[in-house]
Amino acid sequence: MTKTISLLGSTGSIGRQTLDVCREHGVAVGALTARGSIDRLEQQAREFQPRLVAVYELEPALELKRRLSDLDIEVAYGLDGLRRAASLPESDTVVTAVVGMAGLWPTMAAIEAGKRIALANKETLVCAGELVMEAARKYGAEIIPVDSEHSAIFQCLQGCRDRQAEPAGGEVKRLLLTCSGGPFFGLSRDEMAAKTRADALRHPNWTMGEKITVDCATLMNKGLELIEAMRLFKMPPERVEVVIHRQSIIHSMVEFCDGAILAQMGTPDMRLPIRYALTYPHRVMSPLPPLDLLHCPPLTFAPPDMEAFPCLKMAMECARAGGTSCAVLNGANEAAVSLFLREEIPFGRIPQLVARALDAVPSQPARTLEDVLDADRLARECVQG
Fold first, then answer.
1. 2 vs 94: CA distance, rounded Å
2. The CATH number of the domain covering residues in 322-385
């Protein structure tokens, strides 16, 4: 079980819920990082007394250093500060809860330090998955997924002797990623086009940060998760499927070659997969109410509507194409969602801008991190230009 963590992105939704788990189980915190939100970061630092706190930008870091001057806590800033937090010697586990491509470099630093990584930053694997997984093998780093769907698959695969896809002689036939359908399930593309920021942020089941909640509304989140699942579990795209499951009780499933399907069920609470990532391979008691099977609603399943949700379709196409196309997809989506959250574009413009970037930025082999970062930059420029 984890004894000390470095928490990257401590002030966001996943970060705050990770600290809930740390309180419950006496896990120490060696480092905290955040982009801003220094009021909350100060409160967290005073409670958990980490050795290091890192802030992405200089001015907030200087203000936080002034506020924490009465404590023996080092305050760092910038990419170097994030890397130091990710490779802190006393932290045996690094929780990467940073949103977006900003999580790539600190995650690589944690990998190079041979840490266990509780990965909640899907963009790292979406954009540079092959490079990241190869680095993990090289440095002996262990990657445990925190996303509820990938945690579910990871749990269902425990005890599987051969995790290769079935055609290669393995036991796994399919990975089935469940999807709530978001707030706009059942609507046509035209009906969704004029939906507002407030509409998109009303997720029916989960409480999450704004960016991922909008991604759930477009179903881009599920497309990114499909690519992440391919990378994590070494599956070809045709062996990963998306199933609409409105109740968010089954978090994902694995179908095996003998026809058996294993599903992981639970209440829609991110503290469950966070706790499992911090305690794996053990399980510990949870203070949360368990799923009540006698009173939960009927479980339903449906195929996704690719015409109504073109972001999911584009993600599947990029999964098949490979190379830097996934970095273009993600970079364009991050830029478009940012514009939407600032209320500068309507909801229906998000997939249009992503499609424009995919058309404009050619896919190349992703041989280095620089190839990935160049594709990400070009995609953002295309959306913002």
1. 10
2. 1.10.1740.10
pLDDT at residue 101 in the model: 85
Digit-coded pLDDT (tens) for 328-339: 999 999 999 999
> Quick count: other Cβ atoms within 10 Å of Cβ 215?
25
Mean pLDDT of 295-310: 96
The 3-class secondary structure across 275-292, one letter per residue, is: HHHHHCCCCCCCCCCCCC
- Superfamily covering domain 4-145: NAD(P)-binding Rossmann-like Domain (3.40.50.720)
Asked whether 107 and 124 are in contact (CB, 8 A), the reply is yes
Q: Maximum Cα–Cα distance for the chain, whole Å?
A: 62
Length in residues, the chain: 385
Domain ranges of the chain: 4-145, 161-266+294-312, 322-385
Q: State the DSSP string of 301-361.
A: -B---TTT-HHHHHHHHHHHH-TTHHHHHHHHHHHHHHHHHTTSS-TTHHHHHHHHHHHHS
| CA-wise closest residue to 270 among 145, 357, 172, 178 | 145
Contact 275, 25 (CB under 8 A): yes
Q: Is the pLDDT of residue 385 over 90?
A: no
For 176-189, give the DSSP string: EEEE---TTTT--H
- Which residue do the tokens 């050795």 mark? 51
Main-chain dihedrals φ then ψ at residue 176, nearest 5 degrees: -115, 105
Q: Determine contact, residues 88/51, Cβ cutoff 8 Å.
A: yes
Q: Structure tokens of 233?
A: 């579990």
Residue for token pair 């829609």: 268
Tokens 């999450």 identify what position? Answer: 208
pTM higher than the cut 0.85: yes
Per-residue model confidence as pLDDT tens digits over 180-203: 999 999 999 999 998 999 999 999
pLDDT tens digits, residue range 326-367? Answer: 999 999 999 999 999 999 999 999 999 999 999 999 999 999
Establish whether the linkage from the previous residue to 281 is cis, with ω within 30° of 0: yes
Is the pLDDT at 167 greater than 70? The verdict is: no
End-to-end CA distance of the chain: 48
